[in-house]
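To close the chapter, one final illustration. This time we ask the reader to focus less on the individual chains and more on the assembly as a whole: which components sit near each other, and how the overall shape emerges from the parts.
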Amino acid sequence: MATEKKLNYVILGLLSHEALTGYEIKKRIDTALSHFWGASYGSIYPTLKELVVQSLATKEETHTGGRKRLIYTITPAGTAYLAQWMKESVEKDELRYETLLKLFFGKEAGAAQTLLHIGAFRKKTEEKLAYLLTAQQRLEQAPGSDTTHDYYLLTVKFGIASYRAYLDWCSDAAQILKKEEA
Amino acid sequence: MATEKKLNYVILGLLSHEALTGYEIKKRIDTALSHFWGASYGSIYPTLKELVVQSLATKEETHTGGRKRLIYTITPAGTAYLAQWMKESVEKDELRYETLLKLFFGKEAGAAQTLLHIGAFRKKTEEKLAYLLTAQQRLEQAPGSDTTHDYYLLTVKFGIASYRAYLDWCSDAAQILKKEEA
DNA sequence: CTTACCATGTAAGGCGTTACATGATTCA
DNA sequence: TGAATCATGTAACGCCTTACATGGTAAG
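The assembled structure is written out below.
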C-alpha cells in the first residue's frame, strides 16, 4: 500500500491560493516549498490529470500571447478533499541526510575527509539560509493582511531556525574534528 | 536512472563496524540512524543478497542456541567500495515534512487546526530529543577512545541541535497563531 | 541568432514500502 | 500458555525520478 501520496494535496493546496498551470506549480514547489518538499514534472502532470478525472480540479485552455497554457482551478469537491486531509493528523515527517550518513561512517574516511563534507554542507546551508532570509523580508514587508502569507512565513521561519542550528552545529563539529586530526 | 540507492552503503558502513545479521542491521537503522535515515526488511534482505553476489560481503550461517543466524561480514572489496563512496561529495540531503505542508496551507484549516498540528509536532520532537539526549550521555560516558563513537556522537549532536531549534520554533509559531486566533 | 525561459507531456525503470508468510526461543 | 522478541524472506504494488521528446516566445 505504501504511504499515501501527498502530491495531490500539495497541488490542491497551491490551487486553493490561485489557479495555476503545471509549469507554475512546479515553480512554486521549487521556490516556496523547496526547503521541505519536492516534485518533478514527471509526477506533477500525471497527478494533474488524475485530479481532473476525479473532479477535484478543472482544466481550461487559454492562449497568452499565442502561447498555449492549461490553467487548473480547484473545484468545491477539491476544496472539501483538501480540507478533510488538513484535519487529519500528520503521518510522517522524514529527513534523509546523506551528509549525516557519511558522518556516521566517518571513521573509515578520517577526520580530514569528513571536514570536507561538513564544509560542503555548511556552504549549501548558508545559501539556503540566505534565500529564506530574503523570502522572510519580502513577506514581512508585503503590503500585508493576506493571511496566506502568514502561514507561508511560518514555514520560512522554520527553515531559518533549522539552518541556523545546522550552522552552529557545523562549527562545533568542525572544531571537534580538528582536535581529533591533531 | 533515479538517484543511486544508498542502502548498500548504509549496510556496508554498519558492517565495517562489526559483523551483523539482517535483523541486527534493521535494529541499528531504527535506533542509531533513525533520526536521519530509514529502511525496512523488504529492502534490507534483498540488498544483503546483492552485496554477497557482488562479493562486497560474505554470508555465514551460525546457530546461537539452536536459532539460525545469517551473519554478514564485509570483504576487502566491500571496504574499498565504501571508501570510494565516502570520498565522493554528497548528492542529496532531503527533508519531507508533512507538518510543514499542512502549515503552508494552514489558511484553509484555520489557526486552531494548525495549532493542533504544531502541538503534535512538538510532542514528537520532544520524544525524539529525549531519546537523543540519553544516547549522547551514554556515548560521552562510554569507557571511550573508540573513535567510531565520536562520529556517531556528531550525528547525535546534529539531531539535538535540530530538535531544539524545532522546539523554539514551535513556541514562536504557536504564539503567532494564538494572536491571529484572537 | 541564439540563449533562456515558458510550457506540456510520456516511458522506462529503480526504489522501497506494506503485507504476508513462517517459525524458533525466551520470559512472565 | 501466551506475548514479545529473534530471525528470514517474498510478492505486490505504488511512487517518483531521469531522460527523452517537442515546440513556442522573449530578450539581448
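Residues 1-3, 5, 7, 39-40, 42-43, 46, 65-68 of chain B lie near DNA strand C (CB under 10 Å from a C1'). The longest helix of chain B spans residues 147-181. With these observations in hand, you are ready for the problems at the end of the chapter.
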